[in-house]
Design brief:
11 helices; Tetracycline Repressor, domain 2; 0% strand; 78% helix
């Protein structure tokens, strides 16, 4: 049991190191040696836990999606209404420490690996399904089931598009700009009369305020690193 626990911890550490290496060097220039250097370990130790670079990249992909998932779960703890839970999903996906130029560029590199890596495909399908399910669960309070399904798909596509644009653009896209783009899309997909607009505005402000405290805390960062 102890050996298994140590092995899991080491794999988590290497996944984090690989994630950081992809951010710093890009996918093509990330090697097992560089991952080992990031983790303070030899290439041999890296190979002991991951049979090749492809397996390590799958772990990096899992790591990036895990960060977003953990962020949503954390903000859900403070969301009390469907409006606030909608904004928890949006804010978590574009929080400033996650949605930045270098991480977006790394994400674009990782996405390019999906067609060639079965495990990455599986992880991406699961992630897309999770985001869609999260949106549908809250949108059903505002729309009929068919419209909720269609709207959740559109919002999921926009999240992917903003991350893609964030990685490909020469200039960084601000977290607040991406969040406002999501708000504009939301205003076209759900009822957004004067009363609803106020509810959305209050929900966004509350969740953004909480995110700065919770997602930016040292405790959350340490816990999310262990949750790879």
């Amino acid at each position: 049991m102890r050996s298994s626990s140590i092995r899991n911890i080491r794999r988590a550490e290497l996944s984090v190191a690989a994630f950081e290496a992809v951010i710093e060097y890009g996918l093509r220039r990330t090697t097992l040696d560089k991952v080992g250097d990031k983790a303070g370990l030899s290439k041999g130790v890296v190979l002991h836990h991951f049979k090749d670079k492809s397996a390590l990249l799958a772990a990096v992909f899992r790591r990036s999606n895990s960060l977003l998932s953990e962020s949503v779960i954390e903000l859900y703890k403070y969301a009390e209404t469907p409006y606030e839970r909608l904004w928890a999903i949006i804010v978590a996906n574009f929080f400033e420490s996650i949605f930045n130029h270098r991480v977006c560029q790394a994400w674009v590199s990782l996405i390019s690996e999906v067609p060639h890596n079965h495990e990455c495909q599986r992880i991406q399908i699961a992630n897309t399904s999770r985001i869609g399910s999260n949106f549908r669960h809250e949108l059903k309070h505002l729309l009929n089931p068919e419209d909720a399904k269609a709207a959740s798909k559109q919002l999921g596509l926009l999240i992917d598009g903003l991350w893609m644009r964030g990685g490909l653009s020469a200039e960084p896209i601000k977290s607040s700009t991406a969040t406002s783009d999501m708000e504009f899309a939301l205003s076209k997909l759900v009822p957004f009369d004067e009363v609803s607009a106020v509810k959305h505005h209050k929900a966004r402000k509350k969740i953004e305020r909480i995110a700065k405290i919770v997602l930016g805390s040292k405790a959350f960062k340490e816990r999310s690193y262990r949750a790879v």
